[in-house]
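General statements about sequence and structure are easier to judge against a single worked case. When preparing material for the folding task, we compiled for one chain both its residues and its backbone structure tokens. The amino acid sequence and the backbone structure tokens for this protein are reproduced below:
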Amino acid sequence: MPILTGSPVFVRSVPNAALYTVGSGDDTLPVVHLWGTPYQKGFAHGTLMKDKLSGFLTATWAYLQQQVDQGINGTLSPFFPQATIEWLADVGLEAGLDITSDETAPYTGAYFFEEMHGMSDATGVDYDTIRRIHMIGELTRGDCSMFGAWGKSLAQEDGLLTMRALDWNMDGPFHNFPQLTVYHAAPNSTEVAAFVNIGWTGWIGSITGVNSQKISIHEIGVAFPDDTFGAESSSGVPFTHVLRDILQFDGTQLDGVSRLASAHRTCDLILGVGGGNERRFNSIQYSASVCGIMDDTNMRPVAPWHEPLENMIYYGMDWICPGYNSLMHDQLAKYHGNFTVENAIRNVMSFVQTGDLHVHVTDLVAMQMYVAHAAADGVSGPANAYARSFIQIDLNALFATPPPTRSAHVVEPLPEW
């Protein structure tokens, strides 16, 4: 897979928001920069990207309804677990997401709701629909992968490479609305960092991202836990919120890990927090009752198909997932001691075939991110992100992007990508 380089290209702006693109041709991604208070960011986002944002939210809600209907009619839903389908069949989709929202609201920062209100006011999309859509992470799990590599595993030992691959849903609307959203810290606020969210237009939770303090967050859904996870809980902070809190409010890798340890946790996950300043990566066994912090010396689960590697942590698709974990181990071991971004892109994710929806590799010391996204409908080439071109982005330059001046504001039709 080729690696595309080049500076972001300005497209248009409105007060408190600017749109750029990165990449080229069929591998072009929109980059939306946001400034201001949470409400201002939401309103600016909705104003700048009104059609695409409304399209994503409308298509996602229709897809969720379709998935529940198919599950109720006896078609096994690939999006919601069957137990969740049965519960939603009893209470209804809106009520089920409202219950989830009500149980997590006391643990959610007010800025989430303020941003969603701004987005609703700018687009006319019902606020409750936006709020409900942002609860889907608590009710479904993605099959994803991650690794962290540092020290003796690398070709250049004084570094830290991290990867997060999202293997989630390719038949819904998500592959048609990719977006990198850059949040700039508001003056006189508690925000300590700018950060980039890798997700979709209008999605304000975090599942993949990096901040200006050289911290990355990673997430894997756990469909096959063992008994060390304990029971799950529906009352606590949504994981997409606590991960964003790390990016927005934490200045060190230890701060991020400590936030997870002290959080009111909900569902079973494997999380990761990387720190370029510390040259440190921890994976976290995460559940309502457990927050197990791991490095290369105590990585779990301990199994013949999940063998340790010095200065590396890795997970392929799930907690108990012998096939993918074995494949990932073998490819990482093959390049151990000479591991690079290029090895990761060309010989790990593509070989393991992980990262169908999106995937990034980031050098957290040099602050260079390499990101790929699945093909949208009608786009030529491979469908899966891991098989497409990766776009290189200079994160220091990205976070240093200044807000647009009033004279720079341009309102034109959005390009196709």
In short: The first helix runs from residue 38 to 48. The radius of gyration is 20 Å. The mean pLDDT is 90.
